[in-house]
Amino acid sequence: MDEEAGASNEPQYVEDRVCPKCESKLVIKRGRYGKFIGCSNYPNCKHMEPLEKPADTGVQCPECKQASMLKRKSRYGKIFYSCARYSGLQVRGLEPAAHEPCPKCGWPILTIKTTKRRGTRRSAR
């Protein structure tokens, strides 16, 4: 029984990738917010990256106008959209973002929400 417990504690290495900072192997780790990729040379090297890379939406951030909005997953698995530069802008919710400006206020991102009662609606912010 001790052998099984030891086998589950073995680090799971990421194939064909090394740490960009110290050239050590990358390992899949589990933290309090879920799984992530980290350097095997921790605590000397503190490189970390998400297990799933955020998807680029191609929509320019309305606040900083220098980066694009990324589709990200929260630690609870819910989808939200945020600026790639972490400028503070976050569009929260489970609904996807439309790549068109709001006809009323001009906000460059619309969210699409579908409910049983009201059907499909588009709204800004």
Topology:
Blueprint: H1 2-8, E1 12-18, E2 25-31, E3 34-39, E4 48-50, E5 55-60, E6 68-73, E7 79-83, E8 90-91, E9 97-98, E10 110-115, E11 119-124
Antiparallel strand pairs: 1-2, 2-3, 3-4, 5-6, 6-7, 7-8, 9-10, 10-11
Write up this protein.
There is one protein chain. This protein has two domains: 2-50, no CATH class; 55-124, no CATH class. 6% of the residues lie in helices and 45% in strands. It has one helix at residues 2-8, and strands at residues 12-18, 25-31, 34-39, 48-50, 55-60, 68-73, 79-83, 90-91, 97-98, 110-115, 119-124. Strands 1-2-3-4 form a four-stranded antiparallel β-sheet, with no helix packed on it. Strands 5-6-7-8 form a four-stranded antiparallel β-sheet, with no helix packed on it. The chain is elongated and about 55 Å long.
